[in-house]
């Protein structure tokens, strides 16, 4: 029977952990491709625990609107911004990628990291990001994809654990990006090194944050039976899925 609660994202939000493939290396390349050093205002979709928004605000001094669909994640983002001294530059906003509550032609860059993988209508997600980007601005996605069609048992496992049934093949991402209407499009793809990803995850979250998150995860595991079953299922069912995955940076200019 499919676990209804908590999902993979619910667990992450509860304990204060978030991650995208490639860590800071991938983010830095995405920021370069999207010319964020020249930006005055950036929309960061999928704020998570606030690492990306705080990093951009601190590194470039620009204003960052940190958006997420989870109130819990936005509370982590606010805490991260306070701890890193960038509350004056980071604004949190509760919103859905498929219906961005921002005016057309507003942002110098719109960045999306590990969000569209969970969205069914990816074409609409891309068009919403394009819409709120100013002419001459950039849209950049960092997203996971299947390198080959996964077996039915892998898809079934993802459905059981609610990680995401909406992952698509690289070729589908490439078709989607070609139809985006963006100019100067780039697509850069990467394989996954599991050991490096573990190291990148620790660096991304930060040692102090990681230790606190592990404490919350242990407490959740032993005090919430539904969460315990979900965590066990997520680890068991998806440990080999990375072997069928890669990730890519998809960027373009409006």
Question: Descriptors for this entry?
Answer:
globular, seven-stranded mixed beta sheet, 10 helices, 7 strands, single chain, alpha/beta, Rossmann fold, 254 residues
Task: Characterize the structure shown.
By secondary structure, this protein is an alpha/beta fold. The chain is 45% helix and 22% strand. A 7-stranded mixed beta sheet has the order 3-2-1-4-5-7-6, with helices on both faces. The chain has one domain (8-251): Rossmann fold. It is globular and about 50 Å long. The longest helix has 17 residues, at 207-223. The protein has 10 helices and 7 strands.
Q: In the CATH scheme, what's the topology name?
A: Rossmann fold
Principal-axes geometry comes out as globular
- CATH architecture, by name, is 3-Layer(aba) Sandwich
Give the CATH H-level superfamily. Answer: Vaccinia Virus protein VP39
How would you summarize what this structure contains?
By secondary structure, the chain is an alpha/beta fold.
Compile the SSE list and pairings.
Elements: H1 8-15, H2 23-33, E1 41-45, H3 51-60, E2 63-68, H4 71-83, E3 90-94, E4 107-113, H5 122-132, E5 133-146, H6 152-161, H7 170-178, E6 183-191, H8 194-205, H9 207-223, H10 225-238, E7 245-253
Parallel strand pairs: 1-2, 1-4, 2-3, 4-5
Antiparallel strand pairs: 5-7, 6-7
């Amino acid at each position: 029977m499919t676990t209804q609660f908590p999902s993979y994202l619910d667990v992450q939000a509860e304990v204060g952990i978030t991650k995208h493939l490639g860590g800071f290396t991938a983010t830095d390349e995405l920021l370069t491709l999207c010319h964020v050093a020249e930006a005055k205002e950036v929309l960061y979709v999928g704020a998570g625990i606030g690492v990306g928004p705080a990093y951009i605000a601190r590194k470039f001094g620009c204003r960052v609107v940190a958006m997420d669909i989870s109130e819990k994640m936005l509370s982590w983002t606010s805490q991260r911004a306070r701890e890193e001294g960038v509350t004056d530059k980071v604004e949190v906003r509760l919103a859905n990628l498929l219906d961005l509550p921002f005016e057309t032609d507003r942002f110098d860059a719109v960045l999306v990291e590990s969000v569209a993988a969970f969205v069914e209508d990816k074409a609409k997600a891309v068009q919403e990001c394009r819409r709120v980007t100013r002419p001459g601005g950039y849209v950049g996605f960092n997203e996971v994809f299947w390198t080959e069609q996964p077996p039915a048992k892998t898809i079934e496992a993802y459905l059981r654990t609610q990680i995401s049934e909406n992952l698509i093949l690289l070729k589908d991402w490439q078709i989607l990006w070609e139809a985006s209407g963006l100019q100067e499009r780039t697509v850069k793809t990467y394989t996954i090194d599991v050991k490096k990803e573990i190291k990148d995850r620790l660096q991304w979250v930060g040692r102090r944050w990681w230790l606190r998150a592990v404490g919350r995860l242990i407490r959740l595991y032993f005090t919430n039976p539904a969460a315990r079953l979900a965590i066990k299922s997520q680890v068991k069912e998806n440990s080999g899925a990375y072997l069928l995955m890669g990730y890519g940076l998809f960027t373009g200019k409006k």
